[in-house]
């Protein structure tokens, strides 16, 4: 009986060991399956990342090819050259226009300056006529010619400088005499001896005046 009992205990112990071994083997198999699955996922992720990098590298290479395309470089070079030439031409044209305008104004000033003594003589001649002479055909003719001269000068941009009764301005007036006058303030133009003129903002001839001093 004891031997039989001992035999049963040994068999039971063997059965328990077998169950534990099977459970352990199953756990190991499951663990290995999980690791294989993780490795497969990792490999798939690595492959996807590799593909993305290859795609990015391919795009960068394509972009580099586009940037380094000889045709595009030549086109950009020609475009830059055209832009520079166009800018230089615009500058040249602007300089030419300014030079032409400056030369024209200089020539016009010279002509006007030489013409002014004729205007002065007409003005003096009319001022010396009596009222009776002014009504005569000769006097009326001289007056008409003088007015025509003044109109033409105005159309050319020539203006007479105001002087009589104005404050003396050395930029516009040339003082040749000093006079005393109780009715006028000091440094005031008492008399205009010769009319001055301005052409387009530039003084052609200063007014010749006498100035009040106290």
Question: Layout of SSEs?
Answer:
Elements: H1 2-67, H2 70-128, H3 131-134, H4 137-155, E1 158-160, E2 173-179, E3 189-194, E4 197-199, E5 202-205, E6 207-212
Parallel strand pairs: 2-6
Antiparallel strand pairs: 1-4, 3-6, 4-5
Describe this structure in words.
The structure is a single chain. By secondary structure, this protein is of the alpha+beta class. Helices cover 69% and strands 14% of the residues. The chain has helices spanning 2-67, 70-128, 131-134, 137-155, and strands at 158-160, 173-179, 189-194, 197-199, 202-205, 207-212. The strands form two sheets. The protein has a three-stranded antiparallel β-sheet with strand order 1-4-5. Strand 4 (197-199) and strand 5 form a beta hairpin. The longest helix has 66 residues, at 2-67. The mean pLDDT is 77.
């Amino acid at each position: 009986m004891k031997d039989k009992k001992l035999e049963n205990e040994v068999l039971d112990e063997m059965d328990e060991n077998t169950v534990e071994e099977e459970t352990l083997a199953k756990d190991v198999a499951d663990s290995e399956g999980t690791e294989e699955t993780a490795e497969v996922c990792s490999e798939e992720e690595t492959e996807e990342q590799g593909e993305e990098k290859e795609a990015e590298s391919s795009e960068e290479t394509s972009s580099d090819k586009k940037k380094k395309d000889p045709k595009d470089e030549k086109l950009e070079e020609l475009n830059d050259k055209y832009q520079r030439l166009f800018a230089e031409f615009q500058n040249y044209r602007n300089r030419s226009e300014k030079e032409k305008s400056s030369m024209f104004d200089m020539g016009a000033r010279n002509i006007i300056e030489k013409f002014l003594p004729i205007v002065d003589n007409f003005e003096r001649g009319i001022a010396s006529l009596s009222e009776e002479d002014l009504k005569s055909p000769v006097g009326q003719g001289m007056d008409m010619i003088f007015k025509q001269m003044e109109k033409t000068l105005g159309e050319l941009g020539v203006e007479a400088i105001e002087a009589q009764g104005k404050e003396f301005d050395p930029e516009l007036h040339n003082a040749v005499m000093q006079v005393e006058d109780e009715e006028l303030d000091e440094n005031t133009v008492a008399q205009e001896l010769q009319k001055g003129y301005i052409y387009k903002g530039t003084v052609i001839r200063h007014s010749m005046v006498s100035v009040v001093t106290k």
